[in-house]
Amino acid sequence: MKETKKTRRILITGGTGSVGEALVAAFASTGARVWFQYRKERRIAEALRKKFRAIPIHLDFSACFDLPRQDFDVIVNNAGINISDVQTHEVTTEAWKRSGLAVRWRRQLLGWLKPPTT
Ligand SMILES: NC(=O)c1ccc[n+]([C@@H]2O[C@H](COP(=O)([O-])OP(=O)(O)OC[C@H]3O[C@@H](n4cnc5c(N)ncnc54)[C@H](OP(=O)(O)O)[C@@H]3O)[C@@H](O)[C@H]2O)c1
C-alpha cells in the first residue's frame, strides 16, 4: 500500500526573532505548514507571512492568553529575550526571568500538540 505523506503542522514561538525567522524559513522549506507566534514585530510577521505563507499568531506571553487547540505535530518553543549583549555577571534577576518567558508556558503549549497515535 502506498504511504501518503501528510503535511506537518509546525508552531514556532518567537518567530519574529533572529533564531525564530531562521526556524520559520527552515521548516517552510521542508513543505511543512508553519504557524509562528510573535509579540510586537508586525512588520517582520507580515514579511514572514508573505515570503513563507506562514501564519502569524499575535500573543504576548507576559499577559494571560488563550488559544483553541491547534493539534500541531511539532512545537518549537523558542520565544524569549536575547540578553547576550550583557556580560553574564551583569544580567539582572528581572532580565533573567524574562529570558525564560516561553518556558513558563510549557504546559499550555504542550496542550496544543497533536495527541500521539499508536
Ligand atoms: N541568539 C542567540 O545567540 C541565543 C543564544 C542562546 C539562547 N538563545 C535563546 O534563543 C531564543 C531566541 O533568541 P533570539 O536571539 O532569536 O531572540 P530575539 O531575536 O530577541 O527574539 C525573541 C522572540 O521572542 C518574542 N518575545 C519576546 N518577548 C515576548 C513576550 N513577552 N511574549 C511573546 N513573545 C515574546 C519576540 O517577539 P517580538 O519580536 O514580536 O516582540 C521574538 O519573536 C531565546 O529564548 C534566547 O534566550 C539565543
Tell me how many strands there are.
4
Q: Per DSSP, what share of the residues sits in E-state strands of 2 or more residues? A: 15-25%
- Which ligands occur here? NADP nicotinamide-adenine-dinucleotide phosphate
Say what the CATH topology is.
Rossmann fold
Question: How many strands, which pairing sense, and closed or not: the largest β-sheet?
Answer: 4 strands, parallel
Q: How many structural units, i.e. domains?
A: 1
CATH architecture: 3-Layer(aba) Sandwich
Helix proportion: 25-40%
Uncertain stretches: none
Q: Name the structural class.
A: alpha/beta
Identify the CATH homologous superfamily: NAD(P)-binding Rossmann-like Domain
Radius of gyration: 16 Å
What is the CATH class name? Alpha Beta
In spatial order, strands of the major sheet run 3-2-1-4
Q: Give the overall average pLDDT.
A: 84
Report the order of strands and helices. Answer: EHEHEEHH
Could you walk me through the main structural features you see in this protein, from its secondary elements to its overall organization?
This protein has 118 residues and is α/β, with parallel strands linked by helices. It has a single domain (9-110), classed as NAD(P)-binding Rossmann-like Domain (Rossmann fold, 3-Layer(aba) Sandwich). It is 29% helix and 16% strand. Helix 1 (18-28) links the parallel strand 1 and strand 2. The longest helix has 11 residues, at 18-28. The radius of gyration is 16 Å and the shape is globular. The structure holds NADP nicotinamide-adenine-dinucleotide phosphate (NAP). NADP nicotinamide-adenine-dinucleotide phosphate binds at residues 14-20, 38-41, 59-62, 78-82, 84, 99, 101.
